[in-house]
């Protein structure tokens, strides 16, 4: 009698060589979508069969996003500093290159994808997290768009550790920032021999027992890299992510704010948006005798921290943070720089409460001439 064991999603993604129906299942597991049988468009099975013939059918395992994801929308290659204060995180330098390959196109480089990374400091804390006392800070977070070689390169510091987790970096890949046909999260791990060397250096020393790769319940050896270098000179590492991008294309589209129904707006967050008790009343950019000023009107029903960014395409035109806002009505004002051209833009308001719940609301505005 044959016993059939169900395959987990991760087991499917780990498959090193798959064809036919198994190939289709693996692609669907990554994308959550099956390829359509349209003339000129490869099906899921034919895409992965093509990848198998090129010897690159080991798809990157998808892993948990974790509790510390914040959609900061900071496009930058050097993520070591806080974008407002300029304070730089200490630690051993790390240059991390992430290469994206499309399993549905014979492992060709995937251009135009949005790649976010975020990780803890040398002492094991994350920015913009209430429990770490870092709300309003954004060091060791950022994203880039993959180039013609399917690559992005980040300058950061080697991550530290915290109780229960091995050394790791979080990774999120999207086909756009606002609405994605592809939205994939995973984690990158490092050889424990290198971890041992780095964790013995001054910036990383602390009490407690570090969790090693083999003891981490999330760790997957498929996602491990071995950095090259030294504590004195810094390390370099390259991670290759193989996904089926299918027909997902880069670009954004307007969504709907779930609380207001306003076209071209969106409302999202971590921990549940309903837990952050505030309402956005309106956003305008007005020309005054002293220049242009963005005004964000809101009412808070608890003490919250606030951050406002004015964004166009992938560029942050202006930003400002506010400390604890008391309960009541507020008008947050942000001066628009003189070199910002007139035209449509997007306001991104991020609110956080004492428990670490985060809510992000986006609204479109028109910037008048200076």
UniProtKB/TrEMBL annotation:
<feature type="region of interest" description="Disordered">
    <location>
        <begin position="250"/>
        <end position="273"/>
    </location>
</feature>
<dbReference type="InterPro" id="IPR006311">
    <property type="entry name" value="TAT_signal"/>
</dbReference>
<feature type="domain" description="Intradiol ring-cleavage dioxygenases">
    <location>
        <begin position="66"/>
        <end position="190"/>
    </location>
</feature>
<protein>
    <recommendedName>
        <fullName>Intradiol ring-cleavage dioxygenases domain-containing protein</fullName>
    </recommendedName>
</protein>
<feature type="compositionally biased region" description="Low complexity">
    <location>
        <begin position="250"/>
        <end position="268"/>
    </location>
</feature>
<dbReference type="GO" id="GO:0016702">
    <property type="term" value="F:oxidoreductase activity, acting on single donors with incorporation of molecular oxygen, incorporation of two atoms of oxygen"/>
</dbReference>
<dbReference type="InterPro" id="IPR000627">
    <property type="entry name" value="Intradiol_dOase_C"/>
</dbReference>
<dbReference type="GO" id="GO:0008199">
    <property type="term" value="F:ferric iron binding"/>
</dbReference>
<dbReference type="InterPro" id="IPR015889">
    <property type="entry name" value="Intradiol_dOase_core"/>
</dbReference>
<dbReference type="Pfam" id="PF00775">
    <property type="entry name" value="Dioxygenase_C"/>
</dbReference>
């Amino acid at each position: 009698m044959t016993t059939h064991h169900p395959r987990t999603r991760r087991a499917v993604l780990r498959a090193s060589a798959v064809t036919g129906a198994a190939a289709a299942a693996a692609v669907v597991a990554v994308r959550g979508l099956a390829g359509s049988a349209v003339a000129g468009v490869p099906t899921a099975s034919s895409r992965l069969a093509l990848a198998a013939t090129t010897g690159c059918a080991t798809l990157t395992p998808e892993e948990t996003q974790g509790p510390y994801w914040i959609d900061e929308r900071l496009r930058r290659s050097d993520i070591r500093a806080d974008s407002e204060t300029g304070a730089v995180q200490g630690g051993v330098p790390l240059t991390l290159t992430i290469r994206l390959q499309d399993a549905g196109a014979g492992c060709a480089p995937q251009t135009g994808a949005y790649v976010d990374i975020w990780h803890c400091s040398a002492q094991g804390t994350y920015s913009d997290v209430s429990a770490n006392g870092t709300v309003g800070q954004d060091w060791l977070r950022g994203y880039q768009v993959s180039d013609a070689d399917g690559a992005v390169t980040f300058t950061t510091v080697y991550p530290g550790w915290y109780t229960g987790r091995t050394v790791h970096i979080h990774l999120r890949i999207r086909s756009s920032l606002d609405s994605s046909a592809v939205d994939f999260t995973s984690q990158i791990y490092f050889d424990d021999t290198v971890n041992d060397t780095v964790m013995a250096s001054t910036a990383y020393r602390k009490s407690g027992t570090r969790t090693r790769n083999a003891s981490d319940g999330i760790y997957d050896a498929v996602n491990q890299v071995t950095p090259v270098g030294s504590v004195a000179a810094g390390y370099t590492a390259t991670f290759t992510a193989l996904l089926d991008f299918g027909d997902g294309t880069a670009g954004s589209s307007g969504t709907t704010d779930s609380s207001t129904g306003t076209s071209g707006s969106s409302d999202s967050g971590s921990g549940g948006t309903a837990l952050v008790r505030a309402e956005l009343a309106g956003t305008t950019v007005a020309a005054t005798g002293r220049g242009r000023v963005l005004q964000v009107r809101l009412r808070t029903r608890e003490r919250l921290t606030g951050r406002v960014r004015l964004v166009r395409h992938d560029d942050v035109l202006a930003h400002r943070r506010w400390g604890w806002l008391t309960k009541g009505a507020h008008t947050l004002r942000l001066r628009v720089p003189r070199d910002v051209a007139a035209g449509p833009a997007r306001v991104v308001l991020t609110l956080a409460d004492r428990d670490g719940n985060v809510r992000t609301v986006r609204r479109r505005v028109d910037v008048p001439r200076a």
